[in-house]
Amino acid sequence: MNKQFIEISEKINALSFRERLMVIVTVVVLFGFIWWNLFALPLLDKTKRLHKKTKALETEIITINATAAAIRKRIEDGVFKTKQQKLTLLKQELRKVNELLEGKTEALIEPAEMFELMQQLIFAESKLKLTGMKRKEVKSIFSSGGSESNPEQQPEIYRHVLQMSFEGKFESILKYIQKLESLEWKLIWDQITLKTNEYPVIAVDIEISTLSDNKNWVGF
Fold it and tell me: pLDDT tens across 100-141, in order?
């Protein structure tokens, strides 16, 4: 093995500076091509599928809320005021819809817990280095018009977005993302960006979010 290494080293040393430079560039490009096709592309495809799935969940929640709003409007308009029995049935229907909405959001992690958990998992994976963490502005996922006109009747669901930046080797990053996917809570993957400035260290920027009926980052 050492003899082969010495022979290879001698062959490389025998090359001109330009030829050695071309060999180095070829090796770097080859490693970059292998890394991109075997590791980076599959990871990006996976996060795209997760993003599509969580977007579908958010759309379903919005649809359910719209149904509940329509039922409330029918009650407020007094369609069944003269028919107490039908009014009672309508209220029962509204209660079921609200329970369904609650069921869709209860699996999502609370904002404060998400903030703490993301840091804990970074520190647990000691090979990763946290370079930045930022909480974005909290916004309602529904139109603000309904809640302002009747705040007591209109339930609100808020999106809490967390931006994180960290760096490390690909294996450590993959392990960290797999930990996030295996959590009992659901996280909404909004965006993930991979870049490498100094191989094999990879810099990662992710943006994840969760939904909550509480507008504030509780505990902060």
Answer: 666 655 556 666 676 677 666 666 666 788 898 888 888 887
Distances (CA, A) of 65 to 69, 94, 166, 177: 6, 10, 36, 31
Q: Is the pTM of this model over 0.70?
A: no
Q: Residue 110 is part of which domain span?
A: 2-212
Run of H or E including 193: strand 188-198
Q: Which amino acid is at 43?
A: L
Where do the H-state alpha helices sit in the chain? 2-14, 17-35, 41-76, 84-105, 111-124, 144-149, 170-181
- 47 within some domain: yes
Residue 219 is assigned to a structural domain of this protein? no
205 phi, psi to nearest 5 deg: -120, 120
- The CATH number given to whatever domain includes residue 53 is 3.30.70.60
